[in-house]
Amino acid sequence: MSTHTAQTELKLIGKLIIEGELHCQTGLHIGAGKGSLEIGGADNPVVKDAFGLPYVPGSSLRGKIRSLLEHADGLTTPGELVYLSKRRGQEVRIHQSSRPDDEICLLFGRNPGRVDRVQGEALEGGATPARLTIYDAPLDPDSITAQMRENLDDELTEVKSENAVDRITSQANPRTLERVPAGARFKIRMVLDLLCPEDLSLAGRLVEGLRLLEDDALGGGGSRGSGRVRFANLDVKWRSKAFYAEGAPEAALAQNADLGAFQNLVREDLAGKLGVSD
Questions:
Q1: Which of 75, 94, 136, 153 could form a disulfide with 80 if both were Cys (CB 3.0 to 4.6 A apart)?
Q2: DSSP symbol at 197
Q3: What is the pLDDT of residues 85-115, one digit of tens each?
Q4: Domain membership flag for residue 36
Q5: CA dist., res. 157 & res. 173, Å (int)
Q6: What is the tally of structural domains in the chain?
Q7: CB 13 within 8 A of CB 241
Q8: Residue (of 102, 113, 20, 117) closest to 66 by Cα position
Q9: pTM (2 decimals)?
Q10: Is the Cβ–Cβ distance between 20 and 231 less than 8 Å?
């Protein structure tokens, strides 16, 4: 539980840098939208960068982690949710509150201005800075081996065929899903800003979200087998304010770690390792 209060002063202490790999345990589909549909291509293509390489958008990874933490904390009841979009058929509801110790809002930030609750009076309150930044994760092309390429439908992706069957007529409605294949790796980078000693607890919430994701699914088709991922080879570094202001050296806290080692790191006197007085 966070110890933030309305009087907590925010001033940069430093940044926790997390870099590593996201491994696809099964095929991964993060959609590009209908605008990129090509004749003869899959019905649901994956998102690609300007060079035609699949990548994991930071917004997709960040949104999934936030959703999992909201569910874990029981923050998905109507009274805890607000509307990001109220367009009919395209409603978007997320958790947001004005509580100063709300770790979800501290980690991911608050939207500015007045927002409508799903149930209850509108929420009034200003924006607060997000502590967590997650960058787009590029594909490691070397992770797509020559043997894998021999069995792919495209140079870097596979096409999974699926059928939706009508329960009355038994008529099949085929569809295709483009996926990055199992075995692919993406290079991840996350930055957690510490703006006060009370922010130390947010590192533990980040690891919790990552561990929840390993037993959930990223992207589309998760309930049908897609999107199982694993985090590996994590390097964790600490850059204090002096690193930016005076060129002080960074501190290497972990190298080639898994999530278990990362979690032990943040649970065992993280304040002492960072030189932060809590």
A1: 75
A2: G
A3: 888 888 899 999 989 999 999 999 998 888 8
A4: yes
A5: 23
A6: 1
A7: yes
A8: 102
A9: 0.91
A10: yes
- Which residue stretches of the chain are H helix? 58-72, 103-108, 146-149, 200-214, 241-246, 259-267, 270-274
- Token match 């070397």: residue? 142
Alpha-helix runs per DSSP H in 142-199? 146-149
Give the C-alpha distances (Å, rounded to integers) separating 61 from 24, 126, 130, 214.
13, 25, 15, 12
Q: How many helices (H) and strands (E) does the chain have?
A: 7, 11
277 domain-assigned: no
Whether 103 maps to a domain, the answer reads no
171: left (phi over 0), alpha (psi -120 to 50) or beta: beta
Domain with 35 in it: 14-58+129-271
Torsion of CA 125, 62, 11, 272, to 10 degrees: 130
Q: Does 99 reside within a domain?
A: no
